Each structure stands twice: as structure tokens, then as C-alpha cells.
Model the fold of this input.
Amino acid sequence: MQEIDGAIRMGEVFQPLMEPVVRAAIDTLGLPSGSRGLDAGCGIGLQARLLAEAVGPDGHVAGLDISPEMLAHGREIADAAGLSERLSFREGDVRTLPFEADAFDWAWSANCVGYAAPIEPLSAVKELARVVGPGGTVAILAWSSERLLPGHPLLEARLGATSSGIAPFVKGTNPQRHFHRALGWFRKAGLANVAARTFAGGAHAPLREDLRAALIALFGMRWPGVEPELTKEERKAYRRLCLPESPEFILNHPDYYGFFTCSMFSGTVAGR
Done:
């Protein structure tokens, strides 16, 4: 339960940093007004809310997640946003979607299908395509890179090479399962008009409090427990620049600027 509570809090903290990027990706898809769509692996429903806004008052979005606690929080968010009539939630596994074929006009998944290590990506993309009608869109979005330590590229490169820095692409993972190979998954799944796009987000000084909190959480998420893998000098630099309690914490720099990217892969379901 503590893990679920932590994931819920993390989603809320990250939202100010992520929302502009997610909105840009959704806008690029041009989801039809009044359409019905699926958010697979929706978590607490923050992106499902944006999707519901995109399809307008006559559209509908079904959010699916394996966690009932996440879904309960998602329903609260939908109610608070006045979207409960066009946003519903259902418990289920993205690997075996509990929907009939052609149930939706489009399907979306962020930081889940193709990104979560236990989920075999090609079969998951095929499952998304199965529930979307011919001519509909399948899209997956995930975090793809970051530059958070301006002026310290060597340290950031070293942190990026640690076990947590390369997660979820751990040592021994088949290169074909790397998220950036998703074009191949879409083609093998029989999707047409396959495309890839990258969207950038970032923040610079002076930082709003919500963005500062999001970046602090991001530092903790990207490089947890890295110190045993660092040299003595690298540990000193990490503690000096990457820990919020340090007087030289990088976010305190008056000229701070950091950015990140998310990549989206999409395709069109062909006729059956």
C-alpha cells in the first residue's frame, strides 16, 4: 500500500513538469472530436483527463489500470474536473485487455506499453491494435532522455551509465525491447503510417515551487542508490550537486536550466 501511495504522490508531483509535453503529444495526434478512446495503464488518470478534454463533450475515454487504488484516485480526479460522464475507469491488465475487438477509435499508453519491463512490447502493441477499429490510431509515449545537470556533462553521463540511470533497460535486455525500437513493433503488429516524434519539456530559473518539487522528485527517481557505483570523486560531486540538502544543489543555481524529452510512436490500424 505504501508503494501505491508513493506512486500516486509521484504522479501528482510530476504533473506540472509533464503536462505541457503530454498536451503537445496529444495535440499532434489530432484525436477526432466525439471519439472513444482507451488510456492503457492510466495510473491515477491525469493523462486520461487530458485525453478526455481533447475529444470534447461528446467523446469518451476509458482508463485502464491494474491497480484499484490508482483507479479510485483517478475517479476522484475526474469528478473534481467535472469529467466523470466522459471519463470512466476499469481494472485490467494491458497485456490482456478486457475489451472486444474494434471497441475504440484510438488507444494510448504512456510510460507503460513498451516501457514497463515485465510487459512484452510487441504483443502489447498488437493488443492495443486489436481493440481499435480500422483507421484508428494507436500511440505510445514514454520518457526518452534528460539533461538535468547543466555545466556538468561528465557527471551526468556517469550517472546515466549506472544501473538506475539506464533503467528500465537493464543489462542483458534484448535490444529489440528498447523503447526507441518501437517503430519495429508497430510495423510487425501490422500498423500503417508508422511515425515517431519527440517532444521536449524543461524548466529554468527562477523555478516555480511546483516545478522545483517536480525536479527534486525526478532527481530521486532517476538516480536512486547510485553511490556504490561511483568513484570517490564522483560521489562527492553527486552529493554536492544532486542532493537537495546541499548548499550547492544544482537547482539553487541562479542560471539553472534543465530539459527532458518524451518520444511518441504511433500508427494506424489497417482493415481487418
Q: What stands out?
A: Residues 2-29 form the longest helix (28 residues).
